Every structure is written in C-alpha cells, then in structure tokens.
UniProtKB/TrEMBL annotation:
<dbReference type="InterPro" id="IPR000572">
    <property type="entry name" value="OxRdtase_Mopterin-bd_dom"/>
</dbReference>
<protein>
    <submittedName>
        <fullName>Oxidoreductase molybdopterin binding domain-containing protein</fullName>
    </submittedName>
</protein>
<feature type="domain" description="Oxidoreductase molybdopterin-binding">
    <location>
        <begin position="35"/>
        <end position="179"/>
    </location>
</feature>
<feature type="region of interest" description="Disordered">
    <location>
        <begin position="1"/>
        <end position="23"/>
    </location>
</feature>
<dbReference type="Pfam" id="PF00174">
    <property type="entry name" value="Oxidored_molyb"/>
</dbReference>
<dbReference type="InterPro" id="IPR036374">
    <property type="entry name" value="OxRdtase_Mopterin-bd_sf"/>
</dbReference>
C-alpha cells in the first residue's frame, strides 16, 4: 500500500470546496477595475466611517496598523464567473472598526479612492464576515488589487469588495452603488446567483 509522505513544508491536499452555481475555478487573479488604479500612498490614506447622523470617525494608516489584525482564508467569487479558492488575506475585521460606532443604520455605502461605490446591508459587514484587507498571500496588497487596503466581503460577489477603500457611509435607507446602478443585483449572493437585478 502506498504511503503518502508529506515532507516538512509539504502541502496538504486541497480540502473540498463547494463552488457556487455558474462559477469556474481559476488559479489566476484577474484584475477587474472600472477605472484606472488610483495612486493612494499610505501616508495620505485615510478611512472614514460616517454615520447616518453625520458623525465621522477616521483612521490613518498608522492607526489601522495598530488595530488587531486577522488572517483570513476564503474563497472569492466574481460575477464574471470566476472563483478563486483558498485565498489568504490579512486585515482588520469590520467588527473591530465599527465596535465604537453608534448607529441604527441598516445599510452601508462603501466608497473608494477613484470614486467607485458599492452598497451592502450593515449586517453583512458584521459578525466576522468582512475585513479591511491589506495583505494578500502574505504580501502587501498590490495596488491593482486594491492596495493599500480594500474591503473584503467574501460571502458576496466580489464587486462588493471595494478596492482602495476610503470610506463607509452608514445609511437608514438602501442606496445603490456603481455596479448596482448599472444593472447588478442590489445584494449579490453568489449561492443564489444574484448577478443582475
Ligand atoms: N474601487 C473599485 N473596487 C472594485 C472594483 C472597481 O472597479 N473599483 N471592481 C470590483 C469588481 S467587479 C471585482 S470582480 C473585484 C475585482 O478585484 P480584483 O481586481 O482584485 O480581482 O473588485 C471589485 N472592487
Ligand atoms: Mo466583478
């Protein structure tokens, strides 16, 4: 009988991954941007959370780096039918960032440097479901993939994971972001194939 030896540093076999309907798996990391990559230097990077009452809280890069970060391993699913399995990220949980933010809002508009926007229910950013990610596969996040930092919300289609994140506006009522105004689904659950409105 064959004995499979996993040498020191050997790779474990890929665990079983479920793939949402209509998706295929890729090992590439396609770049999908609606505009040019904004040049966001860490020295001028700032993230601002604004509540429905106009109350703002901002973090500089140094302040973000001083917060507890988490390593995240997850599959990601793009509405253009590619999925990438077992990606690894490091970032600050939205639970940490929003812990002291007083709000009764139910919706969020994520805003990016460069003007991109995407809307999400606030619930979907909480309870260990979303991060402000600044590393991918152990390296600083490449600018084309949203560096210095992007939103990571892997349970929704990847257009919700705003690259070059600069702000989160909390809202009482749902408002639509860039792709959502252009025919994409308001919520975007890949398991329900919520691609288009
Ligand atoms: N700021 C910004 N974020 C964005 C986009 C964009 O055009 N601008 N595209 C979205 C879409 S449609 C996808 S599929 C993913 C692509 O991320 P990637 O280029 O790192 O693969 O980013 C999302 N976040
Ligand atoms: Mo996308």
């Amino acid at each position: 009988m064959a004995v499979v030896t996993r040498g020191f540093g050997g790779r474990r076999p890929e665990p079983e991954h479920e793939i949402p309907p209509g998706q295929f798996v890729t090992d590439d990391f396609p770049v999908l941007s609606a505009g040019p990559t904004p040049n966001v230097d860490e020295s001028r990077w700032e993230l601002t959370v604004r509540t429905e009452t106009g109350e703002g809280t901002s973090w500089s890069w140094e302040q973000l780096m001083a917060l507890p970060a988490e390593d995240v391993e997850t599959d990601i699913h793009c509405v253009t039918h590619w999925s990438k399995l077992g990606t690894t990220w490091r970032g600050v949980s939205l639970d940490t960032l929003l812990a002291d933010v007083e709000t009764s809002a139910e919706f969020v508009m994520a805003r990016s440097y460069g003007g991109y926007t995407t809307n999400l229910p606030l619930q979907d950013l909480l309870d260990g479901q979303a991060w402000v990610a600044f590393e991918f596969e152990g390296e600083p996040l490449d600018p084309v993939h949203g560096g210095p930092a992007r939103l990571l919300v892997p349970h929704l289609y990847f257009w919700k994971s705003a690259k070059w994140l600069r702000g989160l506006d909390l809202m009482d009522d749902e408002d639509l972001g860039f792709w959502e105004q252009n025919g994409y689904h308001a919520y975007g659950d890949p398991w329900l194939e919520q691609r288009y409105a």
